Amino acid sequence: MTKLRSVLIAVIAFVTAPAIAFAQEFEKVKDMPTQNIPAGKFVVIAYSIIWLAILVYVLIMASGIRRVNAQLDDLKRKLDRR
Amino acid sequence: MRSPGTGFWIALLLAAAGFVIVPTMIIDAPIEPVMGFVQKIFYFHVPCAIMLFLSTFVCAGGSVAYLFKGSERGDRLALAAGELAVVFGICTLTSGPLWGRKAWGVWWQWDARLTSSLALFLMMLAYLIARKYGGAVGRKLSAAVALFAAIDVPLIYKSVDIWRTVHPKTTVVPSLDARMKPAFWSAFALITLVWALLLTVRVRLERARTELAELRLDADELAEEHA
């Protein structure tokens, strides 16, 4: 009985295998609607973000330098008064 | 702050010239046949990613010097590089999705390359947060974070070879069309120059802050002696 069941399973697997394999294959989609994304806009945005990030960092540093210089001048004035 | 030397001004002049020359070279470079015009993001996206890696390594190197030798200079270098890692991380993680949206049809994929890059960015952000708000142990804590971040860099680089990802492989730059190479290497040189200039200025600013703090202490001591 077990032998018969094994043979039956083997036969079913053999018969259905091509169908299963076929079902798993990718099928080429015909007439698929294409998305028209403007590449130029994306390139401009990407470059703008890069240079903006660097510019913001430069401005933060410039503000830091100005603050340090102002504090140094302040300290110098205090010391001169003494 | 003392004024910088001649080398700094030459580098600044070169960078300024680069801002004019490099975009022209990128526009003149041939359009990639598969991805089209959007591939032009590549010329700045890749150098920014390399600067993110370099900043992380420099930050980890400075952190090692600070952790094991107590080097204040190393600590200043680590802080400057840590900030630059975040800046170039922003550049990489924003230019990449813009490219991906057009090339892959999606803004983001949770694949190995993109996820590990985001993890690196978050670690470098954690470095800065731990340093600023970590209190007395903040500097040591952040130095340890920098070491973990540096371990992530080789993993990011090799991720496209180890796992299946949508991101292009590491062979992209070596196998680049010969007509695209001058534009790419010029953009790389420009970004590296900008990185070096920013690092130099940031380290000098941090040194000036330390000197100012020391001067204040000396001034206070003098005032106490006179009083």
How are the SSEs placed, and which strands pair?
The complex is a heterodimer of chains A (82) and B (227).
Chain A: H1 2-24, H2 39-81
Chain B: H1 6-28, H2 42-69, H3 72-103, H4 112-133, H5 138-162, H6 181-226
* Portion in strands of chain B: under 5%
Average pLDDT number of chain B: 91
Q: Termini of chain A, distance in Å?
A: 110 Å
Low-pLDDT sequence parts of chain A: none
> What is the subunit organization of this protein?
heterodimer
Counted by DSSP, the helix tally of chain A is 2
Largest interface comes to: A-B, 26 and 36 residues
Cα-based radius of gyration of chain A, to the nearest Å: 37 Å
Overall structural class of chain A, as computed from helix and strand content, comes to mainly alpha
Question: What do you see in this structure?
Answer:
The complex is a heterodimer of chains A (82) and B (227). Chain A has helices spanning 2-24, 39-81. Helix content of chain A is 80%, strand content 0%. Chain A has 2 helices and no strands. Chain A is elongated, with a radius of gyration of 37 Å. With 82 residues, chain A is mainly alpha-helical. Chain A starts with a helix and ends with a helix. Chain B contains 6 helices and no strands. In chain B, helix 2 (42-69) packs across helix 5 and helix 3 runs antiparallel to helix 4. The radius of gyration of chain B is 21 Å and the shape is globular. Chains A and B meet through helix 2 of A and helix 2, helix 3 and helix 6 of B.
Features:
heterodimer, A: mainly alpha, 0% strand, elongated, B: 227 residues, mainly alpha, globular
Write a short abstract of this structure:
The complex is a heterodimer of chains A (82) and B (227). Chain A has 82 residues and is mainly α.
